[in-house]
Amino acid sequence: MGVRDRLTRLNGSVPEGVELVAVSKFHPVEALREAYDAGQRIFGESRANELCDKAKVMPEDVRWHFIGHLQTNKVRQILPHVTLIHSVDSERLLRLIDSEASRLGRKVQVLLQLHVAREETKYGFTPDELLSLLTPDLLAHLPSVEVAGVMGMASNVDDEERIRSDFRTIRSVFDMLRDGIMSDVPGFKIVSMGMSHDWPLAVDEGANMIRVGTTIFGEREY
Ligand SMILES: *Cc1c(COP(=O)(O)O)cnc(C)c1O
Predict the structure, then answer these.
(1) Which of 67, 199, 221 maximizes ligand 1 atoms within 8 Å of its Cβ, making it the mutation to test the pocket?
(2) What is the mean pLDDT of residues 136-143?
(3) pLDDT, tens digit (0-9, with 9 covering 90-100), for 177-209
(4) Among residues 25, 110, 149, 215, which is most buried (max CB within 10 A)?
(5) How far apart are CA 67 and CA 84, in angstroms?
């Protein structure tokens, strides 16, 4: 089965109201084009150079999401191309994105990355860190950043209950923020969680954006 058919089949099972990010990292532009021709417009990349190279040759109306760990020295490079950065994992990065976006005279949407999984990644805020990071004072000093939600990953385990509980934790942090500090920010509405192997559980636990690569494009060759 090719990219088009896999994407069509996936779209048939993703519920309405859940946005699909096609994670195209490590795949050639021809594969992205096939997805584009099948109607896909949101693509997720995890490396700055790769995202910029692809953005230069893909159609203008692609919405590029950055989903990997973002080094501060790459912010300037990706900002002209991205519409959403999923992986803001430090206050320093958040402030830097704001100042670089100001410099360009634009606003950029970001998600704050939560670290709840047991192993997987060392990046992201713990729930407590994130809840205490966001203050009216900090938000007032980020005029060019729109904090649009949270992103996270579940533990890479077979135990379904464990995976669900990680997703539930991410969703509950989102809910606390939405009902608290972010309650008068209508754009705070994205819960990005779930990948090829666990997105149905993520959607079940309240994801409204999923990031799926392998199911659409096949295995990556690193
Ligand atoms: C690679 C990646 C994905 C997609 O993973 P698949 O298992 O191929 O669906 C999702 N989210 C992040 C942060 C990634 O780095």
Answers:
(1) 67
(2) 95
(3) 999 999 999 999 999 999 999 999 999 999 999
(4) 110
(5) 9
